[in-house]
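Running log. JK asked me to keep both predictions on one page so they can be read side by side. First protein, sequence followed by its tokens:
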Amino acid sequence: MGSLGRCLARSLLRGQPGPSRPPGPRCYGSAPPELQEKTLVLVKPDAVQRRLVGNVIQRFERRGFKLVAMKLLQVWEGYNVVRSTRAMVGDTNSATAAAGTIRGDFSMHVSRNVVHASDSVETAQREIGFWFQQDELVAWESGDRDYTYGP
């Protein structure tokens, strides 16, 4: 089971009798509502063909963002997620994308730069609307919300 599945399983166990949580990595991504943003990340066909989807998802989870919808697409949510995503993804031009960024590590050419990421909160809202109906976005709370973002 992937970390998203473990996080969902943990959230189902909250408030139920018995063991408090299964062992495993912490779940992140639930900022207070006033700090929430959503962004759209499209894993492009060249990344899918090269089997990089899991690597991309893991990088977002490690940054504390949570996946809230998926159609072979990902929408990430969290505090300052748009700016953080742009930094994680790297420059559009793979030749100038920094090492350690998704494009810097995996992109070969500007036309095959592995992912698309929204460049602003406003753009993200518009782009999310192109790909998802409101009822397709999953609302869930991480058990580690207070640990990640404070009380």
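And the second, directly underneath as requested:
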Amino acid sequence: MMSDAVMTTRRRADGTTVVDVRGSLDASTVDGLRTALRDTLHADRPRLMIVDLMFVTFMDSIGIALLVAGHESAREQGTRLVLRNPSEFVHRQLRIVGLAALFGLPSDVNTHSYRP
């Protein structure tokens, strides 16, 4: 069975772009998020991009690698990319690989997520 992921992008009045992700981030779905991040970065050039992961139910190493690549692409053009509201599973994955702080997340799952 193939995984599904749904991405929606919205621009807030303050110029921040929010990308909401739902479903799984794995080999069968990362291309959609890659495209959404790339297109939004190039078209909107936001100062801050928030990737909201509240409804991400699964993320493997391919999903993590995509988020790191997106972070680097954003940084190269002067955009700050942060993750918001990761599910407990996603937050744990990012903590295990030592990447929580890179994305503006606390290292402890019981601490509130970054909220600009």
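Observation for JK regarding the second prediction: The chain has three helices and four strands.
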